[in-house]
Amino acid sequence: MSECTRLFQEADLDSNGTLDYGEFEAWLRSALQMNASPAAQQRRAVDEEAARAAFASADRDCDGHLTVEELRFAYAGMLLSAGQKVSRKRVARWAARSIRKYDADNSRTLEFEEFFELLRKVRFADGLQLH
Q1: What does the pLDDT look like over 112-123, one tens digit per residue?
Q2: Transmembrane segments in this chain: where (predicted)?
């Protein structure tokens, strides 16, 4: 079996003989993580664990998706925790913009991977500032 065939079979998660983008992305992430240093792997695991906990607490109806309303509540809570002013307009704009920017499958919700991507882009300065 050639190396290319072995890699294809490894990445073809549903064994349908095709490699869709999601399968390729999952395989690539796995391959990149295996080549990362042990310290980087541990940081990623801790980061992902914290992100899963944040996602679970924001997912109020436990359906595996964050709606714009759930994202608003989560963001308002983070602002309050950071001692920042919470304005309805600011929170609504941020949540709507985040859904538009990170909703890769156009479901109008964020699944965990999309939420995790959002968290990777978060910048902390003077307490809390999410872009």
Answers
A1: 999 988 888 765
A2: none
